[in-house]
């Protein structure tokens, strides 16, 4: 991230904290989620957004609107000492892979793989690597599955990154009932766990705490965006086959988003109606600005309509422009189905290198 964009990001973070202190009530509802350069004040009056300071108001509304659907993000009191425990260690060509757990909140330990390249000369960049919908969970990005196209944690570690790939609730070895724990969605539990993974990465002496990003495919693709909207420590987000506008998702049928692995409130509160949803992915993308976002949206993805991806991109672009970060929002459209092709991964890794490795 350049000095100018870093300065904008710092100012936005500080302004967002101030905005959060004064905006206690429910955020306003924005019917048009493609018009992001406008915000509504506490009196219900609309205002054009012409500066980063103005944008803070709308960004705060986006993050609060996401929580209407996902449930509230736990506050800092939920943080407990990580208490890292190594369960297994494998010596591999060029790197060490550790199977570990950390405490993410009281009474809950998250399993993950940590991969550390050998012969590091300086503090290294790190990537949080989030898996797709697959029973083995974290094993796939870590190189223990059969699909070579999804082994991005291993591939990034081979490129010099420290990588951490956790299980999402209900996958791999992480069989937890997030609703019994008080969460309103598995999505929010995932966000919290992923933020705790960033905490742990920042604590490692081998990691440069200012050079951390996130990558994911499908389930991991939208989770990479969700956590980035909440955690400004993530400097780059890569999403493969991860989203489209809710209105273009299976013709507006949001059933796929409503089961217990995602956000049940989409059905229970909002009737699976895209027009009633408090947020859309155009806003999630914009909430990440001015940090970097790389999107791989295949032309033949049957899950996420590429036209709905274009809608979100076009809506988010003016916000990246406002924050002097137009070059930070990049999308490619491989002529493939719901996959993370070799071509797409190589383009994604090059983009991540441009953001996290010294020029």
What does this structure look like?
The protein is of the alpha/beta class. Helices cover 35% and strands 20% of the residues. It has helices at residues 3-22, 52-70, 140-144, 152-158, 186-203, 219-230, 265-268, 281-288, 306-322, 342-356, and strands at 38-40, 46-48, 85-92, 95-105, 108-117, 124-130, 162-166, 207-217, 236-240, 292-296, 329-332. The strands form 2 sheets. It has a 9-stranded mixed sheet with strand order 3-4-5-7-6-8-9-10-11, with helices on both faces. The radius of gyration is 19 Å and the shape is globular. It starts with a helix and ends with a helix.
Oligomer state equals: single chain
User: Which value, in Å, is the CA radius of gyration?
Assistant: 19 Å
How many beta strands in the DSSP annotation?
A: 11
Strand line-up across the major sheet? 3-4-5-7-6-8-9-10-11
User: Roughly what fraction of the amino acids lie in strands?
Assistant: 15-25%
Instruction: Return the average pLDDT rounded to an integer.
Output: 94
Helix vs. strand class: alpha/beta
Through-space gap between termini: 10 Å
- Compressed to H and E, one letter per element, the order equals HEEHEEEEHHEHEHEHHEHEH
Percent of residues in helices: 25-40%
* 3D shape: globular
Largest sheet data = 9 strands, mixed
Low-pLDDT runs of 5+ residues are 13-23
The number of helical segments is: 10
């Amino acid at each position: 991230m350049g000095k100018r964009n870093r300065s904008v990001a710092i100012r936005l973070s500080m302004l967002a904290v101030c905005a959060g202190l004064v905006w206690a009530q429910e955020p306003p509802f924005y019917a048009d989620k493609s018009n992001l350069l406008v915000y509504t004040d506490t009196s219900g009056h609309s205002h054009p957004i012409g500066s980063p300071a103005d944008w803070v108001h709308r960004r705060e509304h986006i993050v609060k609107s996401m929580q209407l659907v996902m449930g509230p993000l736990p506050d800092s009191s939920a943080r407990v000492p990580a208490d890292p425990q190594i369960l297994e260690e494998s010596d591999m060509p060029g790197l060490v892979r550790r199977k570990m757990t950390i405490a993410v909140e009281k009474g809950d330990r998250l399993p993950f793989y940590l991969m550390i390249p050998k012969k590091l000369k300086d503090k290294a960049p790190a990537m949080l690597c989030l898996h797709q919908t697959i029973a083995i969970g974290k094993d796939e990005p870590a190189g223990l599955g059969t699909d070579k196209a999804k082994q991005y944690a291993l591939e990034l570690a081979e490129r010099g990154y420290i990588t951490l790939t956790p299980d999402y609730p209900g996958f791999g070895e992480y069989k937890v009932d997030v609703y019994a724990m008080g969460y309103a969605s598995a999505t929010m539990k995932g966000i919290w766990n992923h933020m705790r993974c960033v905490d742990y990465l920042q604590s490692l002496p081998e990691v440069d705490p200012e050079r951390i990003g996130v990558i994911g495919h499908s389930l991991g693709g939208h989770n990479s965006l969700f956590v980035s909207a909440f955690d400004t420590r993530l400097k780059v987000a890569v999403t493969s086959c991860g989203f489209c506008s809710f209105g273009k998702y299976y013709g507006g049928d949001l059933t796929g988003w409503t089961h217990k692995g995602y956000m049940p409130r989409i059905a229970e509160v909002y009737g699976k109606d895209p027009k009633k949803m408090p947020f859309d992915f155009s806003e999630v993308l914009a909430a990440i600005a001015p940090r970097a976002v790389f999107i791989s949206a295949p032309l033949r993805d049957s899950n996420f309509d590429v036209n709905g991806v274009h809608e979100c991109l076009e809506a988010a672009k003016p916000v990246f422009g406002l924050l002097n970060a137009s070059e930070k929002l990049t999308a490619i459209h491989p002529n493939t189905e719901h996959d993370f092709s070799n071509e797409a991964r190589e383009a994604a890794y090059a983009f991540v290198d441009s953001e996290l490795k010294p020029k």
